[in-house]
Amino acid sequence: MTVVKQEENITITEHVVCPFCATLCDDLVIHVENNQVVKVRNGCNLAKGVFENAHKEWATPRIRGKEVAYGDAVEEAARILEASDNPLIYGLSATDVDAQKKCIELADLIGANLDNASSV
């Protein structure tokens, strides 16, 4: 990483490595203004979406379009997994290692299949 411009509220950094898939692109240019990423150059849609929205709070969980408490959402997810004949845990390319470990534990517990984004 190389900081190429730094002013009072703006920082532009080149040669940023993108951690969101196995490609590990190393040519991103990230523009940060007031501690928020405002622009990503040389990144794919995944990189742009994750970097540019990292400062936003998580959305309120919903069940069939209705806002619910996190506990209710977790209970509903557990109910769906328990009722599944062939559950699949998919993705995890932008998930940290500790969360991936928990997903593997969950897959073992419920007999789920695991797949990652590189399969596409």
List keywords for this structure.
120 residues; alpha+beta; 3 domains
What does this structure look like?
The protein is an alpha+beta fold and 120 residues long. It has three helices and eight strands; from the N terminus they run E-E-E-E-H-E-E-H-E-H-E. The strands form three sheets. It has a four-stranded antiparallel beta sheet. It has a two-stranded antiparallel sheet with strand order 5-6. The protein has a two-stranded parallel sheet with strand order 7-8. Strand 5 and strand 6 form a beta hairpin. It is elongated and about 55 Å long. The two termini are 29 Å apart.
Number of beta strands: 8
What is the alpha-carbon Rg in Å?
Answer: 18 Å
Trace the largest sheet across and list its strands: 1-2-3-4
For this structure, the quaternary state is single chain
Sequence of secondary-structure elements: EEEEHEEHEHE
Reported for the largest beta sheet, the result is: 4 strands, antiparallel
Shape: elongated
Uncertain runs with pLDDT below 50, 5 residues or more? none
What is the domain total for the residues? Answer: 3
What is the CA–CA distance across the termini?
29 Å
Average pLDDT over all residues: 86
